[in-house]
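step=encode ok
step=design start
structure_in=
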């Protein structure tokens, strides 16, 4: 399988992103990226079925972002085979990357067969909050976050808000402290 080329700085990272799908096929359940943070107890808010579900979607596309997902062992295995088949059989979507990522493969799955997995948009991206230093200081901010189960401090949101990747731990800590202080029930 040609993932991101061996000369690409993120080649090993992207390879591991594909492998986590196969690992989850052994156990099933929830999987989140390390940069997804819960906003409240979500045990009663998330559907508990076996269908493969992605909990963050791409604006203006509808496909899922593979940062917070759930499925049975069989569903994880099914989806792993689908994205790996795409990565193996189709030309890469981005010629500069010289290969596939699990994000682009999941987007392609949605383009080809939109009903192949469920999508629930309950994760908010952090871009707007990162632009604010990231402080949740008003009730309006708390209200705007209330429909969401989690916040995703993705590397792309960091880049769009002129933040550096090494700032992520402190930004997450500051955001979660402010959120807990201002918005918790």
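sequence_out=
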């Amino acid at each position: 399988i040609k993932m991101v080329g061996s000369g690409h700085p993120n080649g090993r990272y992207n390879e591991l992103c594909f492998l986590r799908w196969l690992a989850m096929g052994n156990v099933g359940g929830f999987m989140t990226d390390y940069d997804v943070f819960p906003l409240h107890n979500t045990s009663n808010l998330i559907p508990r079925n076996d269908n493969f579900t992605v909990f963050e979607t791409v604006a203006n596309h509808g496909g899922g972002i593979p940062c917070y997902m759930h499925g049975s062992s069989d569903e994880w295995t099914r989806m792993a085979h689908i994205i790996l088949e795409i990565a193996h059989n189709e030309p890469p979507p981005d010629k500069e990357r010289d290969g596939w990522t699990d994000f682009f493969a999941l987007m392609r799955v949605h383009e080809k067969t939109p009903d192949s997995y469920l999508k629930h948009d309950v994760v908010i991206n952090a871009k707007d909050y990162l632009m604010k230093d990231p402080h949740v200081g008003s009730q309006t901010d708390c209200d705007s976050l209330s429909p969401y189960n989690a916040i995703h401090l993705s590397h792309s949101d960091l880049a769009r808000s002129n933040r550096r990747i090494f700032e992520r731990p402190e930004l997450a800590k500051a955001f979660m402290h402010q959120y807990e202080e201002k918005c918790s029930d």
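step=design ok
step=annotate ok -> DSSP finds seven helices and seven strands in the chain.
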